[in-house]
Design goal:
Shape: elongated
Structural class: alpha/beta
Distance between the termini: 48 Å
CATH topology of the largest domain: Alpha/beta knot
Radius of gyration: 29 Å
Helix content: 25-40%
Oligomer: single chain
CATH class of the largest domain: Alpha Beta
Number of helices: 12
């Protein structure tokens, strides 16, 4: 026997044992239960992840051999088989404070809502359509940065997992930004963008920006330049007026076409001021403007006007007291791939 082939023997034996353990685990719930309990009772802790793995590939030849010997004895143990066959299902706690988990909701239209006290005065039916969410951080985020982080939570699936929602394949997005410092439309095209915090509104809009070339390659089809291809509506509402609320709506398709015709694709703060001023002067540039009554529920009116009939919509409201959007911690058990145990 050559020296090279002798080095392959341990690898071949380990591969055979791994496959045997997998066959035991797949054969019956009884075998899966034995593997589960054996790992918890005898597996060494992983020093890097502080966890016990359920993957037999991660264990040595000796450990896998001990398990196969253990399971062969258990299969002949009538008491163990009887205990497994007659055991009751885990009792569900239905005492005080018990609430049945909500069913997964499929969403066609997702609205991202930014601004202080946006749900004040909203009817109960509208509040049930909204879910308050928060970003787990010790920092106070700019509105634009917060929206970008929320979009990242959407892309990674954290929002769907925490809120038990499922986004349909053709879902679209809208954004409503309530700016408390904004009270009137620009009086001139060269007005400073920080007046009324129009720069803040622009930063939230720019949070939906994408690299058009990279996005086109990733999706495999053409996209609108600069803005997220799923963004259909962007609404700005001024909350600083003591009379009526100034409001505007941006339709991305028409808006970007107008920008291209003006030979510009970069939406800087001063350009947004110019666009709003042109819209107030009657120019068709993809922006609609209007005033809303002081005591009206603007959120309800926007959803009623821009939502498609029959679409299932959900509003994600950024709020410090909302559901924390964070990935699962290392001590949470996620079926069926991992078993997590903390050191004593």
């Amino acid at each position: 026997m050559s020296r090279d082939s002798s080095h392959d023997i341990p690898t071949s034996i380990h591969a055979a044992l791994v496959e045997s353990v997998k066959q035991v685990s797949r054969s019956h719930e009884f075998g899966k239960d034995i593997w589960f309990r054996f790992c918890h009772a005898h597996a060494p802790f992983n020093a890097q992840h502080r966890s016990v793995s359920w993957d037999p590939q991660n264990y040595s030849v000796g450990f896998l051999g001990d398990f196969l010997q253990h399971v062969s004895q258990f299969c002949l143990d009538e008491a163990a088989v009887s205990e497994f066959s007659t055991r009751k299902c885990r009792k569900v706690d239905r005492g005080p404070g018990f609430s049945r988990p909500a069913a997964v909701k499929e969403v066609d239209k997702l609205w991202i809502v930014v601004g202080e006290s946006v749900l004040f005065g909203a009817p109960p039916s509208l509040r049930e359509q909204c879910r308050e969410v928060s970003l787990r951080s010790d920092y106070v985020h700019h509105s634009g940065t917060a929206v970008a982080m929320l979009l990242g939570c959407l892309s990674s699936g954290i929002v769907q997992e925490r809120l038990r929602i499922r986004l349909s394949e053709s879902f679209s997005m809208g954004c409503i930004h309530f700016e408390g410092a904004w009270c009137q439309f620009p009086r001139s095209s060269d007005q400073a963008a920080y007046h009324g915090r129009l720069d803040n509104l622009n930063n939230v809009l720019r949070a939906f920006g994408v690299d058009a070339k990279a996005t086109r390659r990733s999706l495999g089809y053409g996209v609108r330049s600069n803005l997220h291809p799923r963004l259909r509506h962007f609404v700005g509402v001024g909350g600083g007026s003591h009379a009526e609320h100034p409001c505007f709506h941006i339709s991305p398709d028409t808006f970007l076409d107008f920008m291209v015709s003006c030979r510009t694709k970069v939406l800087h703060d001063r350009l947004l001021v110019q666009m709003l001023h042109k819209a107030r002067a009657g120019e068709v540039n993809g922006i609609e403007t209007w005033y809303a009554k002081r005591n009206s529920c603007v959120l309800r009116d926007v959803l009623h006007h821009y939502d498609e009939p029959g679409a299932s919509s959900l509003c994600l409201v950024l709020s410090p007291s909302g559901v924390a959007l964070q990935p699962p911690t290392s001590c949470e058990r996620r079926e069926p791939d991992d078993i997590f145990c903390l050191r004593a």
